[in-house]
Design goal:
The protein is mostly helical and about 270 residues long. The protein has 10 helices and 2 strands, in the order H-H-H-H-H-H-H-H-E-E-H-H.
Length: about 270
């Protein structure tokens, strides 16, 4: 029992940080949970062939509930763009399901590489002092919006994240006000996490060597440990998002993300 204590404490600490980040930056929490879960599983000699898939899938399962908590808090402050939610929803859900199902055919190092490359790009974007603005509004084309949302859903599923990590930079680059982008991204998390988690359950259903009480690649005990903390701390993060100057928080998180990304890439290619 004592040998599991580092695992439990590490997961709880990650869950608290993930909940805060979900509300504060609209990142769904997975960008914190996935690397921590992966490294903690590695420390307890969990099968290397399953660690990354289990980390991604379990993160997505928890995001279902974290995103509800975070999105409700933002919606109460009028920061969720319902029209955009309807416009991007189908693409996000289809892309997320496709990513979850495709995970069965991607090697662990492939998932690490995807996570590391995207996380590093996001860290650089977050560290830039000025928000990158490419357009005065989102494209009007239905096809372009469908393509953007599908790609965001697919990559988010493969990374085990809720979508805010990708969608917030895209929205702000199209002149979306940052708090509205964060609030809407929090709602995106639910649309991504449900089909993505279903995809990971199906793709991992018959894979041997999974721990007890797993649904496909989703570890139910780990999800149960994480959820009270992510759900409990997401509203606090949302309140902070509407009361703090987030520049230093963004820079600190960008540094954390860059270090995490580099370590993940070293693990993938080392």
């Amino acid at each position: 029992m004592l040998e599991l204590l580092p695992f439990v404490l590490g997961v709880i600490a990650a869950a608290i940080l993930a909940g805060l980040m979900a509300g504060l930056l609209g990142v769904g929490g997975g960008i914190v949970l996935v690397p921590v879960l992966f490294w903690v599983l590695s420390l307890i000699d969990f099968p290397a062939a399953l660690s990354m898939h289990m980390a991604v899938a379990t993160s997505l399962a928890t995001i279902i509930f974290t995103s509800i908590s975070s999105a409700r808090a933002h919606h109460r402050r009028g920061a969720v763009d319902v029209a955009l939610l309807k416009r991007w929803g189908p693409g996000l859900m289809l892309g997320a399901l496709a990513g979850g199902l495709a995970a069965k055919f991607i090697q662990p190092d492939g998932l690490k590489a995807i996570f590391g490359i995207i996380a590093l790009a996001v860290a650089v974007n977050m560290a830039i002092p000025r928000t990158l603005v490419l357009a005065q509004s989102l494209p009007g084309s239905t096809a372009i919006n469908a393509a953007i949302s599908f790609v965001v859903g697919t990559i988010s599923a493969l990374m085990g994240i809720g979508g805010g990590t990708l969608s917030v930079p895209i929205l702000t680059a199209c002149s979306f006000e940052i708090r509205r982008a964060v609030g809407t991204a929090a709602a995106f998390g639910l649309l991504i996490a449900i089909p993505a988690a279903v995809g990971f359950v199906l793709s991992g259903w018959s894979v041997p060597g999974r721990p007890p009480y797993s649904l496909g690649y989703v570890s139910l005990p780990a999800a149960a440990l994480i959820l009270p903390f992510t759900v409990g701390f997401a509203p606090l993060g949302a309140r902070l998002a509407h009361s703090l100057d987030g520049i230093w928080i963004k820079r600190a998180f960008a540094l954390f993300l860059a270090v995490t990304a580099v370590r993940m890439l070293i693990s993938a290619f080392g």
